[in-house]
Specification:
Pfam families: MerR_1. The protein has about 45 residues and is mainly α. The protein contains two helices and two strands; from the N terminus they run H-E-E-H. It is about 55% helix and about 10% strand.
């Protein structure tokens, strides 16, 4: 998934923030991956 898509989901509140690892990077866990899959599946089904 493109970084721009993840940033958009973060801005829109569809994805909770990750754990910051530096000023410009964050770490995401399996829960984030599940949420990304859910959002993608809902977009595929409902547009």
């Amino acid at each position: 998934m493109p970084v721009a898509t993840v940033k958009y989901y973060l801005r829109e509140g569809l994805l909770p923030p990750g754990t910051p690892t530096s000023r410009t990077q964050a770490q995401y866990d399996e829960e984030h991956v599940r949420r990304l899959r859910l959002v993608r599946a809902l977009l595929d089904v409902g547009g």
